[in-house]
Design goal:
Serine Threonine Protein Phosphatase 5, Tetratricopeptide repeat, 4 helices, 73% helix
């Protein structure tokens, strides 16, 4: 479902898989990716942390964490820095 562009439906499947095996690495990672695609990098990072706690060298998780951190930084800049830039810009004078 995730590859088909439906992260919400994918979350349902990952939750089912995790209900059977709470340490299923690919489901933990997949849930993090789905949450990242839904725009929730904070919660996605919690799932990536679980993957890394179980398998520190999991391929792909490091990239996912970097991507989610990038989204967090981007969101922070949009919320805190850009309004100040716009207030002080010459466009408002």
């Amino acid at each position: 479902m995730l590859m088909l562009g439906d992260p919400t439906k994918a979350l349902t499947w990952f939750d089912r898989a995790l209900g059977i095996d709470a340490n299923h690495i690919e489901s933990l990672h997949g849930k993090g990716i789905a949450l990242l695609n839904l725009g929730d990098p904070d919660v996605a990072n919690e799932w990536f942390d679980q993957v890394l706690a179980i398998q520190p060298t999991h391929p792909g998780t490091s990239n996912s964490v970097i991507q989610s951190k990038g989204l967090l930084i981007h969101s922070y800049v949009q919320m805190h820095y850009m309004p100040r830039v716009l207030r002080n810009s010459c466009w408002e004078h």
